[in-house]
């Protein structure tokens, strides 16, 4: 089956936040300060529907099947805009969850940063993730970025293997929201 990639629409909010949750589960639970899947989806949905934030539909591409059903997503942005795009996330954490936490930066800037990459369980192992990543790297290159980066959990060797196969190199280790990650990048 062939999957098409398109820019996300605001209306994709009924699927994409669940995919994002799959990519960030423990991180989102830290943001909302509870292990509540429905509340985590609500948090991501609020942000996905709004412009100008890390998790906005504006920064997201989706893989769709022939019936336009969303089966995967990748969210990325200019790493130099990280702090500006993070502000609405921090504001929502404070206002709705009384959480003053300021997570460590995931990117040092000077790259197109891939924040979340997720594939629906029904199509995992069918190349959708690779297709999304290749698309995102090509998009970044077209926009003039010299590097595309992401972080990968040290406890997720499968993802690390995929990124390495697609040309990503292992960068430095970093702590993020209580977990240990590697920054990986492709030039």
From TrEMBL:
Every N-acetyltransferase domain range: 3-187
Signal peptide (residue range): none
CDD domains linked: NAT_SF
A GO MF label: acyltransferase activity, transferring groups other than amino-acyl groups
Source taxon at top rank: Bacteria
Keyword Amino-acid biosynthesis: no
Record's keyword terms, sorted: Acyltransferase, Transferase
Name of the molecule in the record: GNAT family N-acetyltransferase
Originating organism: Myroides albus
């Amino acid at each position: 089956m062939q999957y098409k990639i398109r820019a996300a629409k605001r209306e994709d909010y009924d699927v994409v936040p669940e995919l994002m949750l799959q990519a960030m589960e423990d991180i989102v639970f830290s943001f909302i300060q509870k292990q509540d899947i429905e509340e985590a989806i609500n948090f991501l949905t609020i942000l996905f529907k709004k412009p100008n934030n890390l998790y906005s539909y504006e920064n997201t591409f989706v893989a769709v099947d022939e019936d336009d059903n969303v089966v995967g997503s990748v969210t990325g942005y200019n790493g130099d805009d990280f702090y500006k795009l993070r502000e609405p996330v921090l504001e929502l954490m404070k206002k709705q969850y009384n959480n003053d936490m300021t997570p460590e930066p995931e990117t040092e800037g000077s790259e197109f940063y891939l924040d979340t990459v997720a594939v629906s369980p029904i199509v995992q192992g069918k190349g959708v993730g690779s297709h999304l990543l290749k698309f995102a790297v090509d998009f970044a290159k077209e926009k003039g970025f010299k590097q595309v980066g992401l972080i990968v959990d040290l406890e997720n060797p499968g993802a690390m293997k995929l990124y390495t196969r697609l040309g990503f190199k292992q960068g430095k280790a970093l702590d993020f929201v209580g977990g240990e990650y590697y920054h990986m990048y492709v030039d």
